[in-house]
Amino acid sequence: MSRYFLGVDGGQSSTTALIGDAAGRVVGAGHGGPCNHVGAEEGRTKFISALNACVQAACLQAGLDASSVRFVSACLGFSGGPADKEALVHEILPSGRTLVTDDARIAFAGAAGGAPGLIVIAGTGSIAFGRNAAGETARAGGWGYLFGDEGGGFYIARQALRAALRSEEGWGAPTALRSVLLHATGARDMSDLLHRCYTSEFPHSRVAGFAKLVDAAAENGDHIAREILHESAQQLAMLAAAVRRQLFGAGDVVRLAYVGGVFHSRTLLARFQSLVELEEGNRLAPPLYGPAAGALLEAYRAAGVECTLSNVPSQKF
Questions:
Q1: Count of other CB atoms within 10 angstroms of residue 308
Q2: What is d(CA 129, CA 140) in angstroms, rounded to the nearest whole number?
Q3: Model's pTM, two decimal places?
Q4: How far apart are the first and last CA of the chain?
Q5: What interhelical angle do 211-219 and 223-247 show, nearest 10?
Q6: Is the separation of the CB atoms in 184 and 213 below 8 Å?
Q7: Rg of the Cα trace of the chain?
Q8: Which helix (H) or strand (E) holds 101?
Q9: At a CB cut-off of 8 Å and minimum separation 6, what does 280 contact?
Q10: Is the pLDDT of residue 1 over 80?
Q11: What percent of the chain stands above pLDDT 70?
Q12: Which DSSP letter does residue 136 get?
């Protein structure tokens, strides 16, 4: 009888499922809607629908009957963590062994291809996560916009908004960020824009999107924008260093991957690379696979199966 394994990446915008056979070959892929919140009844319904949709689509591509297949092992990683989803997953997913975890773990597993190392993730927020050869794990950051997320998109946008406000009020250095932000949002002045940022018109994800404007201003020569990106790169490098110290010895060779929209900034990435590679043994590299493949690798790992993935579909990092 054929043995199949399941990996699921459940995020804020979509859910992706990958099914692999006993040899590590991906035989099916499927997609569903977002499944990051399940608190209210509406959220529970959306979660079940998204999970079922992506698993059923992956089963269809793999030639499996979704109503009767039972996976040897499954790993599901969710944005926002597993606490409010684990019971539901065990209720609706047929699997001999099920691991429900957060998105950092599966992003790391995919980025490193299942090998030891660490990853820094910087999108709207930020977090660093790693695992060593002994299987020990560690994290740093990821505590949200109030208490953490240093170097992430929201952090960069907040620094830019503060710099633009100081410039407007006459107690900060001149910067093009003021005119850039006002033009992009249609606000009258910084007072108007900051008041809008406290309303539902500007959720955290939208404010974090201002990080792209900061990058463009830096590319156009704005000194303040460049300083913000350099300082954000330093914050992210500090997260990486914190995880490295917990898991690896001085001089150990460590593959350090990076993922997330913030790293699309050439200015930030160049500074980040120069900082992390000051540590002897660090080797910075882009991710090998996306988080759905990472979830599948974790499913194999949970079952004690060692394999190399093949036929992996492309996935946005």
A1: 11
A2: 7
A3: 0.85
A4: 34
A5: 120
A6: yes
A7: 21
A8: strand 98-102
A9: 250, 251
A10: no
A11: 95
A12: -
